[in-house]
What does this fold into?
Amino acid sequence: MSRGGGIVGLVAALVLVAGCTGAERAEPAAPVAFDGEVVTADDGGGVAELTVPGSGRYPGRTRIAVQALVVDGPVMELRVAFTPLGGAGADPDERVPLDAMLDREPLVGDVTSLVQHEVLDDWHTDVVRAETVEGRPVLYQAWFAAPEVRVESLDVVMGPEGPTFRDVPVTYR
It folds into this structure.
């Protein structure tokens, strides 16, 4: 496959898998081939999960499930499933956009040593276009620079007023 074909495959994969924002992206240092893996929220489960009342603009309860972090070369992927569960003030027939349940981009790091990783430029699910209905999970994905040293776990902080998931396992491809 030519280099241009590899880049096209990568962009197509990100659009299909992550709900790309449509913004132009800088070309990655090395082309990455799409390996055929299609990622879904499955049942909305994860290695760490909890239910929060009134998350973001969504008035109902939301289950947040963080999946294991995956390091693949120079990048680390975060996957979080958000499931609107309904409740007071929530319309059970209304589509719920992801940004109504997620106040801001999550941070990944180590709260003890104060090491922090931020989302790479626009390499995350389009939180305005990604939506779901009550009881069905929607997947948020974001890519960060991989840790400089091998770590077994990191913390995921869901915004200044959101929960912090401590010791989320890190896996390596």
User: Anything to note?
Assistant: The radius of gyration is 16 Å. The first strand starts at residue 48 and ends at 52. Helices lie at 3-18.
